[in-house]
Design goal:
alpha/beta
């Protein structure tokens, strides 16, 4: 059976149970959304922010991409999907918080650390390599700290990626301005798939601690 058929079966269960049970809430959401936080998360199928945070529809504005990366502020022509999502969440929805959530066993961070797709052609890893090259500086620092690319090195890379994204977020004028005047707060976190545990970044100390 094609997996799409299973999705349709799931939709019917949702329609009969969850949608019916939350009918009043869905009626409110039909008029618009007012999430209080934006989550920048990885596209990895194992890391669903709504499930991890036990959130209801309409509570979070979520943008997902390879390695949960926020690019630096750029105004060049092109298709700036993540930047558009940030602009919409911050300036239109006026969310009060942004959370960058990395995770364990992240393939995008692994590609950045190992360089496995460097020099490849489109369709063979080119776009992945081009996207994660914003982690080149962090990769060099991680490699310098580790004698071998073991699990500790990959974990280090995943956490450094969160810090890179937070730094990049602050290059957006409307984000930096709102953070300065207290309208917006930025957070970083790392979700361990193996432990099912969330580690939150203490930016003052540069360390992730379990919550």
């Amino acid at each position: 059976m094609p997996y799409f058929s299973k999705l349709i079966e799931g939709y019917h269960r949702f329609r009969e149970k969850d949608w019916a049970r939350e009918r009043e809430r869905w009626s409110e959401l039909a008029e618009g959304q007012s999430p209080r936080i934006m989550i920048l998360s990885c596209a990895d199928s194992r890391v669903d922010p709504a499930m991890i945070f036990d959130a209801k529809p309409g509570e979070m504005f979520v943008a997902r991409n390879i390695a949960a990366l926020a690019p630096p502020y750029e105004t060049s022509s092109g298709f700036h999907g993540v930047s558009a999502a940030l602009e919409f969440a911050v300036t239109q929805l006026e969310v009060g918080e942004i959370l960058v959530m990395g995770h364990g066993l992240c393939g995008g961070c692994a590609a950045a650390l190992t360089g496995q797709f460097d020099g490849t052609e489109p369709g063979e890893g080119h776009f992945i390599a081009d996207w994660v090259r914003m982690l080149d500086g962090a990769r060099d620092e991680v490699r310098a700290r580790h004698d071998e690319l073991d699990r500790a090195a990959f974990d280090d890379m995943e956490r450094e990626a969160v810090k890179v994204s937070l730094a990049n977020l602050r290059t957006f004028p409307w984000i930096a301005e709102r953070e300065r005047d207290g309208r917006l707060r930025l957070h970083g976190a790392h979700f361990s798939i193996a432990e099912g545990r969330l580690y939150v970044l203490d930016e003052a100390e540069g360390k992730f601690r379990p919550v």
